Fold this protein.
Amino acid sequence: MPELPEVETERRRLAARLDGRTLAAVAISDSRLTRPDDPAAIAATLAGARVEAVERRGKYIAVRLSNGRTLLVHLRMTGGFRYEPATHERAVLTLGDGARVAYRDVRRFGTWSLHESEEADEHLAVRLGPEPLERGFTPRFLAGRLAGRSAPVKAAILDQRTVAGLGNIYADESLWRARINPLREAGSLGTAEVSALRDGIRGALRAGIRYQGADLGDGAYAGGRMQERFRAYGREGEPCERCGTPIEKIRVAGRGTWYCPSCQPPPQAASSRSRRPSRSS
Ligand SMILES: [Zn+2]
């Protein structure tokens, strides 16, 4: 399932093809992509518009158009853009010079929705917290989102209103970097731990972007190299790169979760080490 780095990689490739270009023709062959809206109506509104920018917010790609509309694309499980003919094409954009951009989606969970641009921004604002790689994602903001919550910290950071764009893979990678056990109560983290978590999230996402996302072998995000750089995710039984302890797998919030039992000490051990006297007032 694509997370911020995979979506950002798709966005960069798409922007290189679409920025400043006109959508001469648009064909949407799968009505599930635009439901409940009529795919023909969406295609007709897209056709003739010029692409002013291809942006990303969390896991959404926002295609800004000259007609005051914004197309929001959510790739969900296996969605992505292709520049050569591909299997499982659900939509095709033909540009003014005849170049072809296809949207491919094997599992068909991806969505396209067309909005007035201001409405698109509101749609995103109510669903998403700040961009984790931008200035608004401060330790203070993160501390505010975690305060008082008894949920495991991993569940808390999977909430898109806490960290836009984080999913199962990069949550585990972030917690490993921050040396925080995924089962810790979100509200129990001390100030230094919240800062470490903020830095861990940024580090994991930056690495993901640098290696063009993770290719998990299903063909959806082929070419990504991040899977070779995982420190925790999917590494059950392999030695922790910091301490050599075998990585363990548990379930947290219904998700497979990998961590180092030595570097990321369990909740009781961690809380006795960093108790916060201010919380009892
Ligand atoms: Zn370790």
Observations:
- The chain is about 30% helix and 20% strand.
- Residues 240, 242-243, 245, 260, 262-263 surround zinc ion (CB under 6 Å).
- The radius of gyration is 21 Å.
